Automatic annotation (TrEMBL):
InterPro entries: AA/rel_permease1, AminoAcid_Transporter. It comes from the Eukaryota. The gene is Slc7a11_1. The chain crosses the membrane at residues 12-30, 42-64, 76-100, 120-142, 162-183, 203-221, 233-257, 277-297, 332-354, 360-377, 389-410, 416-434. It holds the Pfam family AA_permease_2. It is a multi-pass membrane protein. Keywords: Membrane, Transmembrane, Transmembrane helix. This is XCT protein. GO terms for molecular function: L-amino acid transmembrane transporter activity. GO terms for cellular component: membrane.
Amino acid sequence: EEAVFLRKKITLLRAFSLLIGSMVGSGIFISPKGVLKNSGSVGFSLVVWFACGLLSMFGALCYAELGTRITKSGGHYIYILETLGPLPSFLFLWAEFFAIRPANSAVVSLAFGRYMLEPFFAPCAAPVPAVKLVSLLGYYMVLTLNSWSVTWSARLQTALSVIKLLALALIIVPGMMLLAQGHTENFQDAFDRQSLLLDKLPLAFYAGMFAYSGWFQTSFVREELVRPERNIPLAVIVSVITVIVGYMLTNISYYTVLGMQDVLASPAVAVSFVQRAFKSLISVVPVLVALSCFGTMNGGIFTFSRTLFVASREGQWPPLFSMIHIRRHTPLPAVMLMFPLVTAMVCIGDIYHLMNFFSFSRWLFIGLATLGLIVHRHRHPELHSPFKVPLFIPVSFTIICLFTVAMSFYSDPVNISIGCTMVLSGFPVYYLIIHRQMSTHFLWTKLSSFFPPLSDYLTHKLQLLLEVVQQEIKTY
């Protein structure tokens, strides 16, 4: 009885919660070990953390401008499509669906399972099969919620963002108290040049940027934001500054209480911190960390489903995935599509290998998206943007991203080569299936031309099964 489309339900508070909830997740509880291991010393690791925060702010400002210039949802995908063309956008979609997003979701899910079980098995490590089972259960719960209601997903994100900040506060406060009492012994020779690992620095940046990743999430839901021209820049700036300060203080607290060797030896840094700082909360903090990861999973599903939704609407993905549930007003097919790949990666994956595996592709395409901002400015100088950043910000951010991607081949050639191969495998798919002369003849259109009766029949049956239809109102 009412029009079927995605409603504008993301207010400024919900946008802020989406960003905080996506950034503060498993990263700050996983990445300190990876940053320290690949930077070589306490001092250099803190420099890497601050540099990653500054780099994230540059990227977030670039995406804020892109979000005011390009009014469609879809994040990296739509920015690359609108500025650099269909081929790089299809390669991003290909790599994002088959590598980046499922690996990222698997990392966060495994962190959720590990921290959720940690209090029950301490001081021993939780059994790997149990961790993976709990990880999958958590992921399926978030998947179900996002299929059910946009409003409740947003409310959950807001509540979990408060819990995330509480979890950081429980780590920061005791560390700062010890530091104020003069416990600075773990910061002696903090900048030991002999331990600096220049060839491993790209991996340190990958680990640090993984912890900050999420500053781009509002760009995925641009069409569902209330007053996006105002709320995107405001939410981005406030949330990134909040996270930079929180992460720096958290890492200082880790090193104050644990020291370098303890951080490197710990399978779960936050749990080791609590065991050393105050044992009375030994069962509380891991649960708070697990809930932080739960919020990151929720934000990831919420936003990536919009990428698939927009890609389908643009013709580069099967049309079923641009459909919306007739009563729930959620992009149900797009939400459910990641289910099998994430399940497979959780079952077979390891956190740190998965992190390097997807980081290459992610930062390659983020660098291309900010390159697209420079191109878009050059092509459309007459376009008025309500938010504009100085040119040196997108230029420096793009150069750093692409340089780090290039250097990572030397640091971790195996995993990076796998990620590169995944991206390059999209080339033959694009050129063999997509009509070269007609830029609108994309993947599913071409397949449908071979099997129109079969594709139409399957789409119709799935529509009936899932109770979904095409969006009826243009929202951009």
